[in-house]
Protein: thioredoxin-dependent peroxiredoxin
Amino acid sequence: MVELRKRKAPTQPSISERKGKRVHPSVGSSQSPTPKVGNVLKTGPFDNFPKVGDVIHSDGFGGEFETNDGNKTTLKNLINASDNGIVIFTYPRASTPGCTKQAGLFRDHYDSFTKLGLSVYGLSADSPKTNTTFKSKQMLPFPLLCNPSYTLIEAFGLKKLPKGTIRGVFALDKTARVLLLQAGGPDATVKAALAMD
Structure:
């Protein structure tokens, strides 16, 4: 009798493995790639994505984007306005089941983050109007960031190719040190953010 071998299911590469395989240009720079110096990332067109523990230059990192209220802002402004840092979760599209669940989970745990001095934001490529409707319907206590050009989404390696947003979460402290950068489902992103030291 012939014995058949079972084929192993392909595994999904982690974010760190995908970082080395894809090259994404950064925003607002046409210079040649700038290497990583020490533990601080310089922005350039072909830099690797930041990793947990890296300190980024928040000035210009991820470009300019809008809040759901239509106010223009930058990553540096968000960090400066926070007490101890920021938590930003990314979602593919407002008012879809997974995104509604994820936003609701961050809403339900909002006090856990603010007690630590962390400001919470949602980030997608949706328009301010779409995100304002989503925020209102879900009674979200935090602003939603609108990044239709994917500049900030891509800077953290959470952009789908050729277009789209990978669900995930990232967090930075006041010095712009990356505390968390992870892709995952609604539950996984909230659990990862709550588990930060």
